Amino acid sequence: MGMTFAEKVLARAAGLEKVGPGQIVTVRPDHLLTHDNTAAIIGKIEEDLQTYGVVRPDLPIIVLDHVVPAANEKTATGHARVREFVAAHGLTNFYDVGTGVCHQVVVERGHALPGRILVGSDSHTCSYGAVNAFSTGIDRTEAAALLLTGETWFRVPPTTRITLKGRLKPPVSAKDLILTIIGDISAGGATYQAVEFHGDRETLAGLTIENRFTIANMGIEMGAKVAVFPCDDATESYLASLGVSRDAYEPTWADPDAVYVRDLEYDLGSIEPVVAFPHKVDNVRRVSEEEGLELQQALLGTCTNGRATDLRAAAAILEGKLVSPTMRLLVLPASREVLADVLEDGTMETLVAAGAILLPVGCGPCLGAHQGVLAPGERCISTANRNFKGRMGCKDAEIYLASPETVAASALAGKLADPRKMA
Question: What domains can you pick out in the chain, each with its CATH number?
Answer without folding.
Answer: 5-267 (3.30.499.10), 275-421 (3.30.499.10)
